[in-house]
Amino acid sequence: MRREVPFQKEFAELLEQRMKAAGVKAKSSKPEDIIIQYITLVKRIISPCPRKLLLAKDFECPQELQNGWNIFKIKVESGDDINPHQSTTMKRKGYTDLMLSAWQIHHFHLGETLQPSGYIQRTGKILYAMVKKDVILALKIDEHNHWSDKELLDIAHVNWPELTSDWDVDATPEVDFSSEDIGKLRQAHVNVITRRADGTSTLGGYGITSAGTSIEASLAMVNINRMFDVAYKQAISEFEDTELVLGIDQYNNFCIAEKSSGRGIPVCNLPDISKYSYLF
User: Fold this and answer.
1) pLDDT-derived band of residue 91, with 50, 70 and 90 as boundaries?
2) Who's near 15: CB < 8 A, 6+ residues apart?
């Protein structure tokens, strides 16, 4: 029998309220699924803040996209919102970006005008890039559908090994999967170790569950469950009033609080996606 996580149901209900406020429908009524869906959205949304834009050494921008590229570059470096440059698949209920989940690679459109949809004008060629806390690594501009192109991992490894080594694997896979193979396996929700051009190997990222959801989001949910357990035990030990509620403190942390006093034990902090309603 599955053990009940303290306040998991109430936590999921609050996240679902935030999703509804953003225009997002929950794909399931199960608390675990709602939490994973919400975390997946949070991981996909890029928080606006100034970042350096680093270019791979052979990076080239086609002339027809130069204006759009300049607009994107200014937004990145000034800390403006670049989410409208992302894919409109954000609007799909329960959609998981498989390339982002597998390889930590975003893709951006380089149009010049904002459309009524809330997104920037779509472009045939797009930017493939990795987004870090204070930097964006511009890998290449290429056509759509290069979602499993092994060259992207090679470019990241050659140009920024210190920033992409977390997923390196000290092993050589028996099968050197092609980009096409990786794409087919990914659609079947199979993760593979990828051999790079220099002979080294990488996982690329957290990967995808057999259900097609983000492993990173699933692990985050497990960690949040653990933090709820810890906070609940601490609240029972510290508070005289045993009537506890789920609340949000002054720092926007979800917390387990004493109902009578409002004092709480912080659990976790997840950004409110409702302010990004234009994306959904």
Assistant:
1) confident
2) 34, 35, 38, 270
